[in-house]
Each structure stands twice: as C-alpha cells, then as structure tokens.
Amino acid sequence: MTPEPAPGRTMVPLVPALVMLGLVAGAHGDSKPVFVKVPEDQTGLSGGVASFVCQATGEPKPRITWMKKGKKVSSQRFEVIEFDDGAGSVLRIQPLRVQRDEAIYECTATNSLGEINTSAKLSVLEAEQLPDGFPSIDMGPQLKVVEKARTATMLCAAGGDPDPEISWFKDFLPVDPAASNGRIKQLRSGALQIESSEESDQGKYECVATNSAGTRYSAPANLYVRGPASWAWSPTRVSLPSRLCV
C-alpha cells in the first residue's frame, strides 16, 4: 500500500526530485569547453617562426589538440608546448617553409561533455616577396644576467607600416603581464620590464612584431637570474708540494 501523506503535506515523487538534484549539481559542476584564446591568421617569413596559441576552459579541464589537413600535426619542425594543465597549448613551427607549411591549422578542445573547434590560416613568404611595411626587428633582446630581486629589462624595437604591435614569448609560451600582479610590465617602447626578479623569470625570451602585413620574431636571448651569493668572488689558495717550492 502507498502511504497517505500527512495532513497539510504534499509528497514529491522521488524520481523527478532526483533528476532535479542532478541538474542543479551539473549546473554548478561540469561544463563544456569554451575558448578563452583562439589562434589568429598569420603571415610569416620563410626560415622564420610562427606560433599559434589556443586555450579553453571547462570542467573537467579540456585538452587541446592540433590538426593540419585533418591529421594530427607531426613534424620535427612542429612543437606543441602545453600550459594550464593541458587546457592551453602553443603550436610552434620553425623554420617556416613556403608551401609546405601553408595551411589551415585547427585547434580542438575536448572534455567529457563535448568538443569545440577553431582554426587559423598560415601564409609563408620568401624574403623577396615581403610587402612594404612588413615588420622588422630593429633591436632585439640581448643576453642579460640580473641579481635576484633586482629589475631586468629586455629591450625590443620594431618598425613597419602600420606600426607593429610587440608581444613577448618566454620559453615558447606567451608572456601575459596582466597575470603578474604588476611585477611584469610591457613599456610603451615595447621593452619588457621585470621587477623583483625571481628564478622563475629565468629563460629564453623573444619579442614578436605583428601588423597587417605579417609577423616577425626576434632572435632569442636568455635571461639569467642569480642569487647574491653567486656574485661574490674570492681567490682560492693552492698549496704546492714542497719539492716544487724554490
């Protein structure tokens, strides 16, 4: 027999109630991937570098994969560098080859709830094909050694028409000054200023100049961060065997 509800009370069917609870839990838990950074079309220089950046959010965290012409990218000149536990990825191509690398590159973000895709086109030009205004690196970063907690400045100056925008990569990953709580700044000149240097700032830096004509990378330069003790120098005493003494 089905029990009668107590006076003044309404019985809620058990199965629909459980379904509703599941929907509420899902609304505050798992979610499909959503892109927060998408790759952009690029025109690069033969022998140079191209980097595509892709990042997504979701729960569980999505994984990023890269495809070229329907196949997973695979080449000694192609490198995939992950960040954000695999939810972010950089596809780096170096050195660029005309025709061979010109293609549509597809970024796919996948988790247990779904899959999303976005893509970008890469064009590659020979030096004699570069249009007027193609970016130039007039001054690239140089090797620098800085004492820990001091300020380091990596210089970069670029030309082009229109004036190119300058961005930075460290160890092949994009530098995001906004994520440094003000410790890392990109100056109006394009230089990258790193205050209160930490060991984690040590690495290989590249500045990138981009305008509507194309993209050009500087040569990489290393930044080394050293503790105060490593700067001290003291002579070492050497004792010679008595038979060598005059």
UniProtKB/TrEMBL annotation:
GO biological process: axon guidance; dendrite self-avoidance; homophilic cell adhesion via plasma membrane adhesion molecules
Pfam family for this entry, one: I-set
Signal peptide residues on this chain, from the entry's feature table: 1-29
Key word Heme present: no
SMART domains, alphabetized: IG (SM00409), IGc2 (SM00408)
InterPro entries reported in the protein's UniProt record: Ig-like_dom, Ig-like_dom_sf, Ig-like_fold, Ig_I-set, Ig_sub, Ig_sub2
Gene Ontology cellular component annotations, sorted alphabetically: axon; plasma membrane
The UniProt record lists the keyword Signal: yes
Keyword list, A-Z: Immunoglobulin domain, Signal
Domain of life: Eukaryota
Location of the Ig-like domain: 33-123, 135-224
UniProt GO MF annotations: cell-cell adhesion mediator activity
Gene3D superfamilies, per the entry: Immunoglobulins
PANTHER family assigned to the protein according to its UniProt record, in alphabetical order: BASIGIN RELATED, ROUNDABOUT HOMOLOG 4
Record's protein name: Ig-like domain-containing protein
